[in-house]
Specification:
The chain is mainly β. The chain has helices at about 15-25, 45-55, 110-115, 190; strands spanning about 5-10, 25-35, 35-45, 60-65, 65-80, 85-90, 100-110, 120, 125-130, 140-145, 150-155, 165, 175-180, 195-200, 210. The protein has two domains: about 5-95, Ribosomal Protein L25, Chain P (Beta Barrel), CATH 2.40.240; about 100-180, Beta Complex (RNA Polymerase Alpha Subunit, Chain A, domain 2), CATH 2.170.120. It is about 15% helix and about 45% strand. The strands form four sheets. It has a six-stranded mixed beta barrel with strand order 1-3-2-6-5-4. The N and C termini lie far apart (about 80 Å).
């Protein structure tokens, strides 16, 4: 697996006004932390980081001040209005140390149960895994073509990937297809009809006195 390299620069400026200036010139503020080392404030070129994100990789090599550090893209904050990255958090990693992280689950194919009128429920859209950094998958792809009505795919039935361990319970449901429950149609007469209300307990040999609601 090729490890992509991303150039960064250390920054000393803090505060919303200074960070705004960085973004105006195409820079993204970032933070590198972890492995019991000092946090490092960085700034990245927006177009270069966008190129990294487009590849789908989670792991990269950060270079700054003549240093190189292996890091994981831990969190990306977006401005949803203008669709721009606001801030990035990187976590230091050791290439020989297994890590835990969450990856997305991608459904492939069309379920036979859905074709028969069922409803697909994608319960688990992300899953926590444990693996070496070089084995991090872009996503977990699940084929649902054979998923029928009343059936489900569980964690234990996910694809077996070399070096990948799934963390959730093996019986946890990832995706299922269930039958639509149709409600019984109620006529207008049934909606308007009201039950009789017993207002007096009948004596032996007498009929109950009933009244209708006004």
């Amino acid at each position: 697996m090729e490890i992509l390299e991303l150039k960064a620069e250390k920054r000393t400026t803090t505060g919303s006004r200074e960070v705004k200036k960085l973004r105006m010139v195409g820079q993204i503020p970032a933070m590198l932390y972890g492995h019991k080392q000092d946090n490092v404030m960085l700034c990245l070129k927006e177009d270069e980081f966008a190129r990294i994100l487009h590849t789908g990789t989670r792991m990269l090599r950060l270079t700054y001040d003549n240093k190189k550090e292996s890091a994981l893209i831990k969190e990306v904050q977006y401005d949803n209005i203008v669709d721009r990255v606001l801030h990035v958090d990187f976590s230091r990693i050791d290439l020989d140390e297994r890590i835990k992280l969450r990856v997305s689950i991608d459904l492939a194919g069309e379920s036979v149960g859905v074709k028969e009128g069922g409803v697909l429920t994608h319960v688990m859209k992300e899953i926590e895994i444990e693996c070496l950094p070089i084995a991090i998958p872009e996503m977990i792809k699940v084929n649902i073509s054979e998923l029928g009505l009343g059936k489900a795919i569980h964690v234990k039935e996910l694809p077996v990937l070399e070096g990948i361990q799934y963390i959730p319970d093996a019986e946890a449901v990832v995706v299922s297809v269930h039958q639509i429950v149709e409600k019984k149609a109620v006529s207008e007469e049934e909606l308007l009809a009201e039950p009789e209300v017993i207002t007096k307990k009948p004596k032996e040999g007498e009929e109950a006195v009933a009244s209708e609601k006004a």
